[in-house]
Amino acid sequence: MTAPGAGDRAASAAAWIARLWIVPVALLGWELAARLAGAVYFPPPSAILVRLHELWFSGPLGRLFLTQEAVDHLLPSLGRLLLGWAAACAVAVVAGVALGRSASAYDCVNPLIHFFRSIPPPLLIPIAMTLTGVGTPLQLAAIVFGVVWPVLINTLDGARHVDRAYLETCEVFGVSRTAQLLRVILPAMAPKVFAGLRISVALALIMMIISEYVGSTEGIGYHMLVAQSQVDIASMWTAIVLLGVLGFVLNSLFLRVERRVLAWHRSARRTG
Amino acid sequence: MNTGTALRGALGIAGFLLVAEALGRTGVVDPYAVPLASSVLSGAFGLLLDGEFLAGVGDTLSSAAAGLLLATAAAVPSGLVLGTFPRAERAVRPLVEFLRPIPSVALLPLALFALADQGKIALIVYTSYWSVLINTLYGLRDVDPLAKETLQSFGFGRYAVVRRVSLPSAAPFIATGVRISASVALIVAVSVELVAGGDGIGTFVSDAAAGNRRDLMIAATAWTGVIGLLVNSVLSGAERRAFRWHRTQAGEGAA
């Protein structure tokens, strides 16, 4: 790939404008409508932006402009989200590989997994709360339970449907079991695993928020409930914007990583 | 599914219950903190005669169903409009991409505040709307262009093409969107009940937790899992029956 020249850059900027013009237009429409109608629950975007800045990002330079509010509520939420998600994914992928490679083990656990998968995960929060009380362990438990099933189901699906020809080739060439696992089975199931991981990012975010509504004394969700009780609509909107941006950023990051990791898969499919 | 698979599945469930029971009986897990499997099971049978629980199930399911219906009624026409006018779709796409990743529960306090009792259904509609819309668009992109052009060259108008070709061939995708949304609708309904109260399974479970009836709390949660499983298998069964032609066309086996 060659470095993009100035012409390419201008062309890609034009493409961006052609693609995204609707976003500023929609924001402007919202701004005008909100100002004209004086809608209480839909403050104009400019007001939300000002509040967003003063509430979360007007802190000192040494803290990357984060306010005390952001350090107290935003960072714990993010930490728990990432920790819970990573832990659940690790457990689910390991369990999925182990169970998926044995047909009879899979048959034994399959109905249980589908049962647990069908429980709306927020219902587990009151149950977990009786065990952990209010606080970080509750959030982690909630996120893990919400995330683990879709990842496990997708990993199992991937592990069970590795092309038999690959495995037989390994057999013929006497490839060791570990090498088979690392170089054939894991890469072959990667596309399915990634599909599960991407669904789970959204679920982890949902579980983070609900568990902070129901059982927490800090976090973005808790902040939002406090803002609700104080009838501070703009502050509620700042939290909605933060969570929306978080959802968007996590999803796009994930797609980018997936595209890079699975590049070989797409090129193999294209030539195949 | 053959008998061997079913047998191993039953074995797995029985094993799970036995291990849970044994852990409680031997005191490895405090049976006060986590009730015995047997007491949860007997609680679960008791709930079948519990009017309060059944009313809660009815409330949760009816709001999820109402929200899902409204969302489908809104999403399919908007999908058809966007699907038939590619320029409109290209224009609106960035808005969809920005709005869809907003976790619906982030809107929960605002929705309850602004809409009070209607907030629950509004939130279910909002959440379900996106996956039905996306699936509709996806299905419309999959329509055989040859069929569309054939109809057009025989002088059928745009509307007739949508009704006779696009909508039927997108229907299996729409059905999948509705099935995915059904489980999401249940999640949102329960979440609203947990956070805001009101009638429903979520409230029943949090009341049971507050009243320290841990057996009932787990039993009610388990029933909800069973309901979710039933809803999903009924919907995917209906899908399979209604769209048999699609599966044979797509070359999938009759598994």
From TrEMBL, chain A:
Bilayer topology annotation: Multi-pass membrane protein
Transmembrane residue ranges: 20-42, 82-103, 123-152, 193-214, 234-257
Domain ABC transmembrane type-1: 74-254
Domain of life where this protein originates: Bacteria
Compartments (UniProt record): Cell membrane
Principal location listed in the UniProt entry: membrane
Gene3D superfamilies with a match to the protein in the record: MetI-like
Record key words, sorted: Cell membrane, Membrane, Transmembrane, Transmembrane helix, Transport
GO biological process: one example: transmembrane transport
GO (cellular component) term, any one: plasma membrane
Similarity comment: Belongs to the binding-protein-dependent transport system permease family.
Protein name per the record: Nitrate ABC transporter permease
Organism name: Planomonospora parontospora
UniProtKB/TrEMBL annotation, chain B:
Broad class of the protein's primary localization: membrane
Subcellular location: Cell membrane
CDD domains: TM_PBP2 (cd06261)
SUPFAM superfamilies listed in its UniProt record: MetI-like
Chain ranges passing through the membrane: 6-24, 61-86, 98-115, 121-140, 173-196, 216-235
PROSITE patterns membership: ABC_TM1
Gene3D superfamilies: MetI-like (1.10.3720.10)
Keywords per UniProt: Cell membrane, Membrane, Transmembrane, Transmembrane helix, Transport
Protein's UniProt keywords contain Membrane: yes
GO annotation terms (biological process): transmembrane transport
Keyword DNA-binding: no
One Gene Ontology cellular component annotation held by this UniProt entry: plasma membrane
Bilayer topology: Multi-pass membrane protein
PANTHER family to which the protein is assigned, alphabetical: ABC TRANSPORTER PERMEASE PROTEIN MJ0413-RELATED, ALKANE SULFONATE ABC TRANSPORTER-RELATED, MEMBRANE SUBUNIT
UniProt protein name: Nitrate ABC transporter permease
